[in-house]
Amino acid sequence: xxxxxxxxxxxxxEKNGVVDxxxxxxxxxxxxxxxxxGCGKTTTLNLIGGFLKADKGKILLEGIDIINLPPxxxxxxxxxxxxALFPHMNVIENIAYGVRxxxxxxxxxxxxxxxxxxxxVGLDGxxxxxxxxxSGGQQQRVALARSMATNPKILLLDEPLSNLDASLRVxxxxxxxxxxxxxxxxxxxxxxxxxxALSLSDKIVVMDKGxxxxxxxxxxxxxxxxxxxxxxxxxxxxxxxxxxxxxLVRPEDIDIMIxxxxxxxxxxxxxxxxxxxxxxxxxxxxxxxxxxxxxxxEFQIGCRVDLKINxxxxxxxVKGQA
Length: 322
Ligand SMILES: Nc1ncnc2c1ncn2[C@@H]1O[C@H](COP(=O)(O)OP(=O)(O)OP(=O)(O)O)[C@@H](O)[C@H]1O
Ligand SMILES: [Mg+2]
Fold this sequence. Notes:
Blueprint (H helix, E strand, L loop, with lengths): L2 E9 L5 E9 L4 E5 L6 H9 L6 E6 L2 E2 L10 E4 L11 H13 L3 H14 L15 H13 L5 E5 L7 H18 L2 E6 L2 H7 L2 E6 L2 E6 L1 H6 L4 H6 L4 E5 L2 E5 L4 E5 L5 E8 L4 E6 L4 E6 L12 E6 L3 E2 L8
Parallel strand pairs: 3-8, 3-9, 6-7, 7-8
Antiparallel strand pairs: 1-2, 1-4, 4-5, 9-10, 11-12, 12-18, 13-17, 14-15, 14-17, 15-16
Helix pairs in contact: 2-3, 2-4, 3-4
The structure holds adenosine-5'-triphosphate and magnesium ion.
């Protein structure tokens, strides 16, 4: 295994921190740590980066425990949410700084390497620009280039897209994925955005309250969530009782059929563009149904309907670490 976190533990006090985090990362893999605010994502990254001292555990990189190495001795680079660029340096100086500091290259060679990475992130022509004059997306690219140019074995990214507006976020997400595959960089990416995690990752590590609660591919965590919490955190789901058993049913796995004698009533609808969200009462509670396609925008509030469940997840059967 390329990187192995073994029982990594750091407690700030009785309740806060991370406990017994076990994660395996393969070389070239894109691993996302996903979880709500305060679940321990940044703490885990900071332990890998060496910015925090672990109470317990091992960080094996290619079989060697790096847990006692200071941050600058670890072959790891971090892209922070705030970018942390140097405001008094221009773009190329920012990128070259990392190369000189970490790779101990002379100024000229460092500038040449920095130019290569400026090109990789699509910022040719911006080398002399002040970082303060760049847009959020451009600053993000400089931060990425600065980290990548240090040639780390592992790139850590802590919510790097969260300062960008929605459309730029999606664009940068695609660029990041493309770069990662093209350059075969091992990345550990932190986010609390499930769509980012699902679209980018080879593997998702779901955390809750300082613990890893499931590790799997995006399809595994989406279609076989280890528990109700994960199901509700990754996508939406309904908890529905069928023949005395409780199942999780995704809103997109239900169809609506008009039936004047039906047992269910449409209580509310919201048009979202790519789909329409219906809230349907079945007498016991509300069930959320998402339908795509123009013809499915036409069911009216107050209509009596039947629901057809096309796929259900049995909770007792789901697999995971929890
Ligand atoms: N230096 C610290 N001292 C004390 N408590 C801390 C410290 N750093 C983090 N914590 C606590 O540890 C828990 C995990 O924090 P962490 O920053 O890892 O969360 P996170 O998952 O990154 O959240 P967010 O999505 O909000 O960034 C939180 O409850 C936090 O308040
Ligand atoms: Mg954080």
